[in-house]
TrEMBL record:
It comes from Bacillus anthracis. Keywords: Plasmid. Coiled coil: none annotated. The keyword Aminoacyl-tRNA synthetase does not apply. Residues 31-169 form the Schlafen AlbA-2 domain. This is Schlafen AlbA-2 domain-containing protein. Pfam families: SLFN_AlbA_2. It comes from the Bacteria. The lineage of its organism: Bacteria, Bacillati, Bacillota, Bacilli, Bacillales.
Length: 189
């Protein structure tokens, strides 16, 4: 995912790859249907993330192709793919985790907490020293089976597009349900 500038390290041939986010480095990965970069602007990191996290999770849950898990990464610029991080002290990191779980618990129909993962990863300077209170926030949404159409606590339905997410109006929701039922019938035969 990240470029060599981001300091990929491998623990061993069988073990997991450790990704280090290096401030101001550029990721090789680009945004596409299953990966979304978000830059947190302003002093209210938690509020900024919470304002859209459920919308993106719902959009990924509503993805019909369900080929890959969806990932939203806060602390990466959208256009340049530059690692900037977001400021979060210890108390805020804990609050952010709890608040994301509370927000995602309100999705309808309900989803199990095992269907997503929240990772808060350190950001390093070019000499690989952790930059105090600077982090990348990743929310990874697993693929789900079935034809359910998910909604936020505000009863808003989103779908993932190649350019972001789209909020559906009532006619589009009806069309999406019909399309899902059509696919369901074809898959049963």
């Amino acid at each position: 995912m990240p470029s060599k500038k981001c300091g990929e390290d491998k623990l061993d041939d069988e073990g997991p790859v450790i990704v280090r986010y290096i401030k101001d480095s550029i990721l090789d990965a680009e945004e596409y249907r299953y990966m979304e970069f978000k830059e947190v602007k302003g002093d209210h990191s938690i509020r900024s993330i919470l304002s859209v996290v459920d919308q993106y999770v719902v959009a990924y849950l509503n993805e019909r192709k369900k080929q890959f898990p969806g990932t939203i990464i806060w602390g990466i610029t959208d256009k340049e793919r530059k690692v900037v991080g977001t400021k979060l002290i210890h108390k805020e990191r804990d609050e952010l985790r709890r608040s994301i779980v509370e927000r995602l618990d309100q999705i309808q129909p309900p989803i199990p907490p095992s269907s997503y993962k929240i990772d808060i990863k350190e950001v390093y300077d070019s000499s690989l020293k952790h930059i105090e209170d600077t982090y990348i926030v990743e929310v990874i949404v697993d693929t789900v089976t079935g034809n359910d159409l998910f909604a936020t606590a505000k009863n808003e339905v989103y779908i993932k597009t190649d350019g972001g997410k789209k909020k559906l109006n009532h006619i589009q929701i009806q069309q999406e349900i019909l399309l899902r039922n059509q696919h369901k019938r074809f898959n049963l035969k």
